[in-house]
């Protein structure tokens, strides 16, 4: 899908209502010892579009405005960030108020059908999950095994809520650099991987096109379901990498749209499930082959 050119003057106004990502709770361990630990601070956020209630999202609240923007984009309710005038998040009432420039055409009809997906916390997609995927055109991006290893290492070194509190999914957007390098552009954690990828979609929509001109790779700690593959393709990202595996439908969609899907990516190991023509293998980097 060609990415719309967004001028800074047309970008929506966003609040910056970041919420605390963790909270301390009292616990008792297996020895009867008392202590405190950090847990993710899940909270509900009800989204209103032009004063009409649309959906309630369960989220950590790291970047709620970008989450809402990306949600609207990935649900195909808006075409670009420039369709939105403003997004205002107020945690005191747990609400996000979206104001569009011209409304959302046929919003009642387009949100009448809901598909419950395999996303953590029960993700959902309005309308036909597969609608329009054959029209998606992904850039001819290729990357190397060395860049894949650099990406996995960057994730390993990334400070995260998961390391301190667990129970969350992380997603990241990378661009490919010269000399087999990669650059992390955005890292997001949330209670569900669908929220994290929606937040990255919102982040991409707010960037000037030229800033992400080099090849893009999307990383997720969660499995590659059809929803995750479709959303990656909708963001114009032709390569996805997961610490987990892939579902049958995710595999079918990746093959259908020509997306490179890599899973089980830990340390030097990985499995390329689809789109292997995008990956330049360098087997010597993997070390000795074990029986």
TrEMBL record:
Keywords: Cytoplasm, Molybdenum cofactor biosynthesis. It comes from the Bacteria. Pfam families: FdhD-NarQ. Its main location: cytoplasm. Coiled coil: none annotated. It is found in: Cytoplasm. The active site is at 120 (cysteine persulfide intermediate). Belongs to the FdhD family. PANTHER family: FORMATE DEHYDROGENASE, SULFUR CARRIER PROTEIN FDHD. Required for formate dehydrogenase (FDH) activity. Acts as a sulfur carrier protein that transfers sulfur from IscS to the molybdenum cofactor prior to its insertion into FDH. This is Sulfur carrier protein FdhD.
